[in-house]
Amino acid sequence: MLMTNDIKPPGRPRVPLAPVLSRSSFAAWAGARPASVLDAGAVRQVTSGRIAIALALREMGIGAGDGVLVPAYHSMSMIPPVLACGARPLFYKIGPDAAPDLADIAARLDGSVKAIMVTSYFGFPQALDQLRAFCDSHGLQLLEDCAHCFFGQHAGKPVGSWGDYAIASSMKFFPIYEGGCLVSARHALSTPQPVSAGAGFEGKAALNALENSFAYGRLPLVRAALWLPMQLKALLWRLLKRGGAPELAPSSSDSSFEFDPRWLDKRSSLFSRLVMQHAAHARIVALRRAHYLQLEQSLAGLPGCRPLFARLPDGACPWLFPLLVDLPEPLFERLYKAGVPLTRFAETLWPGAEICANSIHFSRHVLAFPCHQELRADELAWMAATIREALAT
Ligand SMILES: Cc1ncc(COP(=O)(O)O)c(C=O)c1O
Which run of H or of E encompasses 381? Predict the structure, then answer.
């Protein structure tokens, strides 16, 4: 089953929903390297955020019969790793500001609960001092989900510093095909260093990142130079597929919610790690913030919508621009037809999670638009104008 919240319209103009490699990805950029989850502590680089969740739960010693509290507003991909270790996901409410509802969490502790997952949505760091103190006083472990929040700091500390363990989804922030990380600011990691998944995976991770970039008109010279090898690769792939396509990469890279434990001990590809190392981090943060603010300004005061969060805090690096709209379906129809890419995060909730009015409201009414560093000025302007027009009709 392949399910996704990402809506990439088939028609043109094609604006990339996620970052794609460009010449500027590695450009020199003034300013200090911004804080990220990698600064929080010990790191293991794996192929997705959900694999990192499974590893964090393993580090915590979570097993059969244990309860793991998960926010009612969640990605479906957060649940299979909980089930895979034999634990039960139990859902807790969030407030109108998307912060965890501590009273509801307290009411759900039933003796089986061993850990709490908390998500910083769309790149906005949660204030976690209280939840951290709550976990300490109740003997619970905290898993800080920074899947939307690779970069950023809060109260002077990098994101990921509050949890016993933190996870991130690097592929949401860098122009790479796969990538996630497990981090701990508080414990030495017992997870061994992951190993390469082999030459097929390494090649696919590099080629898919490049092909994705070419599909959006980036790197035309590299595309021309690689034309022949790419044709040969396509031919080889067609031949291989005849005998049943070999599975070279995890389904987590194809916008599915699936969890495949075969990737638990696999390292993120060399290509992804090199891109992460050499990409201009200050550029990523500065442009994401600038694009977010541009969208915020373009859509300010329009009827029937408001940004999910009132303001972008200093030190935050947005994943997407989440817009809370009164009438999501007609607007979605118009945007889809016009070719605007968007994400409906948590559009589908895990059965049993329908306990929280705020989560249900956000899951239906938030349309989230790209604000990543690789959007061109004309793409951003077109997207903002198209959304404005769609809201006005
Ligand atoms: C809040 C949240 N946590 C965890 C994940 C899992 O990340 P990945 O897709 O890298 O497995 C996602 C994925 O979208 C997410 O949105």
Answer: helix 377-392
